Amino acid sequence: MMARFCGYLEKVFQLGKLMQPLRDSRRRPVIPTQAVFASVLTMFATARPSLNQLEKEIRIPARLRGIVGPRLPSVDSIGRIYAQLDPQHLQQMLSAINHQVRRSKMLHLGDWKIAAVDGHEFFSSRKRCCPQCQTRTIKVQGEEVTEYYHQGVVCHLIEEDLALPLDVELLRPGEGEETAAKRLLERVFQNYSRSVDIVVGDALYFDAPFINFCREHHKHAIVVIKGDHRLLLQDAQGVFSQQAPCEWHEPHRHVRCWDQEGFTSAEGVREPLRVLHTEETVYRRERIAGKWQQSVERSQWYWAVTLSKNQLNSRAVYRAGHRRWDVENDCFNTLSTHWALNHCFKHAPWAIVNFILTCFIAFVLLQCFWLRNLKPPARHCVGTLIGLASELYRSLGADCRAPWQARPP
Questions:
Q1: Separation CA 120–CA 359 (nearest Å)
Q2: Contacts of 115 (CB under 8 A, 6+ apart)
Q3: Would you say the C-alpha torsion 208, 213, 219, 224 has a positive or negative sign?
Q4: Quick one: 142 exposed, middle or buried, by C-beta within 10 A (0-12, 13-18, 19+)?
Q5: Whole-number average pLDDT of the chain
Q6: How far is CA 137 from CA 121, 124, 140, 147, 177, in A?
Q7: pLDDT class for 266, splitting at 50, 70, 90?
Q8: Residues of 314-323 as b/e, b for ≥16 C-beta within 10 angstroms?
């Protein structure tokens, strides 16, 4: 299976060509940077949770030589070299892979391409730190203790069956999430200019600088409105009280919706906003104490939208607003649970970003192979994506040679 996986990566994505520009700051490297990247990619593709797990394979050189090459790096060398590798190289590689996904027609793109931005805390420590760590004070057994942590913002394409993270940006000390998000989106808009039309964010991103930032880059925004923005909410509630809602049914839920354009009460926003409000009734059926029980949950949502009704109808805005959770469910939760996204492989600023980007690259490649190459009977036998990672791990061996490794004479 691993040989087939490597052959697919070379045939569809030309991974060997993408690895060639990888360089770190060493002047006379003995171990190629490409070998280090291939080692880390193999670690994530086989769902090994740490470098210590990878070390067991390095001790048996034949298991990795066909993928990594004749010079296998130690785990200490991997951490040290990843701390010297400029993340720009891996950002460009991830961008090239995502563009190839689109060119190969693996996506079901509609008229609008939608991406979500959200923050995530990757790990924390009370002992180890670096110059880029954020700090907070917590109480442990009644005593105040300084905790060091790293938080980042991720941009993720939504409304697709493939979970495609586009890029990541770490917060700097004392910096807010929105500031890092703007820095991230600057790069995303440059690298994915035709792949992102709309940015979706939670209530943290509802302010004039962020919305104006998106519009200055000719992108649209859909952001949640909450109680902190009373003036716009009061205007919208006054207008909606005079309107009859439209209604529709979703699976296990009933939705009542109000939608109106032309609100100018959001201070600092340079153009009128559209506000969409929904009241949702969710019907749940749960098994409790051996008996099925029905429950009903009700919720209300408000979204500020820069698109007109003619550009995107109410139901599409509603779906995009809720699909914002794709970045939590498909990216953060899945990668944290099965691919060690929240593990600190090397506590150095560049190393942290590089390991996250390599994790994203491996995740995208695994999904493409799983959903776009394997036939349904093979997927049924393997079972799940994590099952595929386990199958790749079992198939490591001397007879597995990647196409990007030169054949022996």
A1: 15
A2: 155, 156, 157, 158, 166, 188, 192, 195, 196, 198, 199, 200
A3: negative
A4: exposed
A5: 92
A6: 16, 12, 10, 6, 19
A7: confident
A8: bbbbbebbbb
Quote the percentage of the chain above a pLDDT of 70. 99
**What's the confidence (pLDDT) of residue 408?**
44
pLDDT attached to residue 99: 95
Backbone phi, psi, residue 46, to 5°: -95, 10
Tokens found for residue 390: 């386990």
Mean pLDDT, residues 175-185: 95
For 36-51, b where at least 16 C-beta lie within 10 A, e where not — what string? bbbbbbbbbbbbbeeb
Helix (H) or strand (E) holding 185: helix 177-191
Q: Is the separation of the CB atoms in 241 and 339 below 8 Å? A: no
pLDDT average, residue stretch 277-287: 91
Please report how the helices 87-103 and 177-191 are oriented relative to each other, as an axis angle in degrees rounded to 10.
50
Which sequence spans correspond to the domains of the chain? 2-95+345-394, 223-314
Q: Which of 3, 82, 6, 70 is nearest to 37 (CA)?
A: 82
Check: CB of residue 275 under 8 Å from CB of residue 305. yes
Three-class secondary structure of residue 176 per DSSP? coil
